[in-house]
Amino acid sequence: MSENRDSQDVLLKGAIVVVIFVVAGLAYAYMVGSKEPESHPLLTKEGEAKPTREPEDPFPDSDSEDEKLSEFNPTSGSVKSPESVDALPVPGDPLLVTLPAPHDSLGQISIEKYDSEGQPTGRPLKSGTPVQIPDPNWSGERIYFKVP
After folding, report:
1. SS3 at position 81
2. 9: helix, coil or strand?
3. Residues near 78 by beta carbon (within 8 Å), at least 6 away in sequence
4. 90 exposure class (CB count in 10 Å sphere: 0-12, 13-18, 19+)
């Protein structure tokens, strides 16, 4: 009789473990949702990400677009509009520019074009190309300028 009771206890414990795993699996599936790319609203049928909005140009051509352009700085929690400064060419070297005050302490900045393998080409970026570089004086901030 004791043997029969032990086997019933083992079966009951096994059934309880199975029920716990099934409930945990269903809860996980509910929380995670379907992993099929077709069902995700931000993925295309090929599984590629859909753009959620058009990227903004940090160098708008007209002043009216300046009002629309804003950038959130997560470090300071502030919203600011990036201002483009006019880069100045270095006489005799088309691969270098300098920036006016307050960025003049940066010295000469290379505007050399790089190929797809990351190698310098020896040619400058096209005139009017927007450039952004990290501001060494302000962590997390960027300096924007156009190639002259």
Report:
1. coil
2. helix
3. 72
4. middle
Q: What is the pLDDT of residues 29-68, one digit of tens each?
A: 776 665 554 455 555 556 565 555 666 666 555 444 434 3
Q: How many angstroms separate the CA atoms of 133 and 24, rounded? A: 49
Nearest-angstrom CA–CA distance, 15 and 111: 70
Judge whether 38 and 46 are in contact, CB under 8 Å: no
- Provide the 8-state DSSP code for 40: -
d(CA 123, CA 94): 8
Whole-angstrom distance, CA of residue 28 vs CA of residue 30: 5
**Cα–Cα distance between 126 and 77 in angstroms, integer?**
34
pTM of the model: 0.45
Q: Which of 68, 76, 66, 59 is nearest to 143 (CA)?
A: 59
Distance, in Å, from the CA atom of 80 to the CA atom of 134, rounded to the nearest integer, reads 16
